[in-house]
Prior knowledge:
The protein contains 7 helices and 14 strands. It has 215 residues and is an alpha/beta fold. The strands form 3 sheets. Strands 2-1-3-4-14-13-12-9 form an 8-stranded mixed sheet. The two termini are 18 Å apart.
Amino acid sequence: MMATSSDATSAPRVAIVDYGMGNLHSVKRKLDRIGVHSHVTSDPAEVLKADKLLLPGVGHFGKAMEHLGSLGLLTALNEAVLDKKTPILGICLGMQLLARHSQEGDVDGLGWLDADVRRFDIDDTLRFKVPHMGWNGVHVARPDPLLDGVTGTTEFYFVHAYHMVCRDPSDVLCSTDYSYSFTSVVRRDNLYGVQFHPEKSHEAGETLLRKFLYV
Length: 215
């Protein structure tokens, strides 16, 4: 579904942060479908000018932090998100980067959320393969405009071997069951994160992205 004329006139400037790791163009195609102009960028100046930021990611946590640093994006992201309060949505690895630390590479993340990232610790490896891959539902812990329309039957597409563990339960919007319950959606003020891939989650993912863009 394309944006209405009223959507178009109020469409935010959206920057998809390119640090060399992620389904950047899949995300952009989904935003094009929504009718929102976005651009993929690794330019810190463009990050600072955006109204909304998306931080996708696929791959290794340690390499991701290394790339953000080498591209000069860490300072720009901190200024945009912490000082200017620009809303940001982390997707999959992008969500995990919001945390303080990850087991993957034993490195620090952006530190915006009081959370750690841990690998799935599963006993029944015949039934529950790692990485967790495929469609799964979410349990809404507290209401939020981002989740309007999400019900007990809504499913999203996951691909990940690590997950976030939040120290503050108020940061958790949703959990998902895979052998045990893990955090799948977070929010604190202008920080949003989803462990699944909304760009691969058909209508449910498109709706969630639309909510983020126009919240």
